[in-house]
């Protein structure tokens, strides 16, 4: 893992929080006294989420003790071993996630034979869809541009099981990155699962920090 300063981690985390809300169509993040954000999601099983910096764990601990609404999520920019002992037992900790970034550049899109890709813009977000020549859905992904224009936040990159291991996710990422560069973005940001971490790492993405996710049961 490359060394990122606290300031760099906080900048990436802020970009991801804002890009996530744009991609998901929620209200903008609400700042929390300089240690993170609250996002009103309003979905079953996911009413609110808190995106929290990892260098202020005393504030994170206090917040976790105060929250009493089930289906509230925490996304903390710190490893499991730093967080697990701070959260009350009612919080269920999820598998590790990873805040990752990459300097994006124009790249030729490598799409396997038999597939076609399309981009659809929606305000500051864009959706990439890959279909077979017969029109069957194969893969999709979203990307949102932060308001300052520097960051491209990648989200919901999903390949259907029957179409995996064919490079479709890579093609989606390349297409979205090229679009973002055309809008002056220079840095890609995402939060990856354990499985996604390996794939993105193989394509030049760098881990800025492990992320700990937890939900209040």
3D structure, described in words:
- The chain is an alpha+beta fold.
- It has 2 domains: 6-100 and 209-216, no CATH class; 105-185, Aminopeptidase.
- The chain is built from 5 helices and 12 strands.
- The protein has helices at residues 6-24, 57-66, 80-83, 168-182, 194-201, and strands spanning 30-31, 36-43, 46-52, 72-76, 91-93, 97-103, 115-122, 125-132, 137-145, 151-159, 187-192, 206-216.
- The chain is globular and about 55 Å long.
- The model has no long low-confidence stretch (mean pLDDT 95).
Q: Which helices and strands occur, and which strands form pairs?
A:
Elements: H1 6-24, E1 30-31, E2 36-43, E3 46-52, H2 57-66, E4 72-76, H3 80-83, E5 91-93, E6 97-103, E7 115-122, E8 125-132, E9 137-145, E10 151-159, H4 168-182, E11 187-192, H5 194-201, E12 206-216
Parallel strand pairs: 3-4, 10-11
Antiparallel strand pairs: 1-2, 2-3, 4-12, 5-12, 6-11, 6-12, 7-8, 8-9, 9-10
Protein traits:
5 helices; 217 residues; 2 domains; Acyl_CoA_acyltransferase; alpha+beta; 12-stranded mixed beta sheet
With helices defined by DSSP (H or I, 4 residues minimum), what is the helix count? 5
% residues in beta strands: 35-45%
Question: Main sheet, how many strands, which sense, barrel?
Answer: 12 strands, mixed
**How many domains, in number, for the residues?**
2
- H and E order: HEEEHEHEEEEEEHEHE
Provide the helix percentage: 25-40%
Note poorly predicted spans: none
* Estimated structural class: alpha+beta
Count of strand segments = 12
Please state the overall shape, judged from the principal axes of the Cα atoms: globular
The overall pLDDT average reads 95
Our Rg estimate from Cα atoms comes to: 18 Å
Compute the separation of the termini in Å.
32 Å
